[in-house]
User: What shape does this take?
Amino acid sequence: MEKIRYHPRATGQCHIAVDDGGEVAEFEFGVMDVERDVQFPERRRFAGYYVRIEGSDGVEWIGRSTMSVVAAMRVLDDELAETGGRLLVAGLHADFYETALSEGSGFGYISGYRDAVHIMERPLLDSRARYSATVEKTRHEINRHRRD
Assistant: This one.
């Protein structure tokens, strides 16, 4: 029987919505591998990515995917949704994306944000997008006046 081993890349705290309220949960994400041979445990093969969270009550959820950390996060969010919860993180935001250089690093981008965001941070899109939109509007006004 193959034994799954977890290798964390990042740990910290994230926000989840449970039972019509929010709470801070501990998270861990990383890669998984499996031992191919009991006699030679160093012979392992890549098995995918995982995201694990533990609520304040000690309940643990885990999402796994062979595709990416974000895909594992979606699996985890679906599992939470079955119990009435949601994972409130940037990696699940509709406008979140990773680039070739940021993929797998735990960071990505959200349209409207000026800087990279961690996939497990709670998105604060309103204030950052407002700032970014104000900067763009100001640039547009300056350029319009230059043309006039």
User: Anything to note?
Assistant: The chain has two helices and eight strands. The beta strands are 4-18, 21-35, 44-54, 60-65, 86-88, 96-97, 107-110, 117-118. Residues 88 and 113 are 17 Å apart (CA to CA).
